Amino acid sequence: QVQLVESGGGLVQAGGSLRPSCAASGRAFSTYAVGWFRQAPGKEREFVAAISWSGGITYYADSVKGRFTISRNNAKNTVYLQMDSLKPEDTAVYYCAAGRPAGLGDLKVESEYDYWGQGTQVTVSS
Length: 126
Prior knowledge:
The protein is mainly β. It is 0% helix and 48% strand.
């Protein structure tokens, strides 16, 4: 079992930065890939970024590539999402999830993730 808790969301002006964190409990966390997803009001949840269990592979949605950076510290059971050059369209509830996707292309697939956090709100004002 893995339990995930997100923190570090907030309100920021366009062009600013935030670094949400995803803290996990469970000894096996370091064996799971972790993904970040987001859901804006009235929209479906969408993939943002993912990182392999070792941290050696990262994968980003085109909409955030070059602006967001995902990283992890397995000694601290924590995954981070550094968000720079934020835009109003980045406003959403951000969720982290842990799972064991079969391949690179599966990292963006919600059903490949077994454990989900409760989400943290990110609001970007124009």
